[in-house]
Design goal:
It contains 5 helices and 5 strands, in the order βαβααβααββ. By secondary structure, the chain is an alpha+beta fold. The chain has a single domain, classed as Phosphoenolpyruvate Carboxykinase, domain 3 (Alpha-Beta Complex). Strands 1-2-5-4-3 form a 5-stranded antiparallel beta sheet. GO terms for molecular function: NAD+ poly-ADP-ribosyltransferase activity; NAD+-protein mono-ADP-ribosyltransferase activity; transcription corepressor activity. It is found in: Nucleus.
């Protein structure tokens, strides 16, 4: 993983999407439970796992060809969500970066819908699956996802490390 410089446009984009996603979650009336926590982003790391990225792209392109979709951005948006979130603990965060999501390790947090890796539209939902470490830092992946029946159909693009200050 490579730490994204805090002064870069890339960092600003990832952090602003993350903050917007958390705010959207807490603004939904059924999740209101008092004051929204203050998010203090400590770091954004870009996952650079070339074999994992190639598998992800290969499966995505196979799906596009099978569906006879054109090779353009509009068609890809039909199959791919650029940002879904996955909360994790400190020990598992590194394993995901190196080995991707692995359904055989699931069940630690929730398997209400069956064994699998779960992703949320709003980062706020993933907070409950991102326990703080000894320093109070939590971890959520911002992921690229498409119809997922295989572990490599999800790519953990960014690891966001942050604290909550109520």
């Amino acid at each position: 993983m490579v730490r994204v410089p805090a002064s870069s446009d890339e960092h600003d984009h990832v952090e602003s999407d993350f903050r917007r996603s958390i705010s959207a979650f807490f603004l939904q009336s059924r999740y209101r439970s008092g004051q929204q926590p203050q998010v203090l982003v400590e770091a954004v790391h870009r996952v650079q796992n070339r074999p994992q990225w190639r598998r992800y792209c290969l499966l995505r392109d196979e799906l596009r060809l099978r569906e006879r979709a054109p090779d353009d951005a509009a068609a890809m948006r039909r199959f791919e969500r650029e940002r879904l979130y996955h909360g994790t603990d400190e020990a598992t965060a590194d394993k995901i970066a190196h080995n991707n999501f692995n359904r055989s390790f699931c069940g630690k947090n929730a398997t209400r819908l069956g064994h699998g890796s779960y992703f949320a539209l709003h980062a706020g939902y993933s907070l409950r699956y991102a326990p703080p470490d000894g320093r109070g830092v939590r971890r959520i992946y911002a992921c690229r996802i498409y119809v997922t029946y295989k572990d490599s159909q999800a790519y953990p693009e960014y690891l966001i490390s942050f604290r909550l200050d109520k």
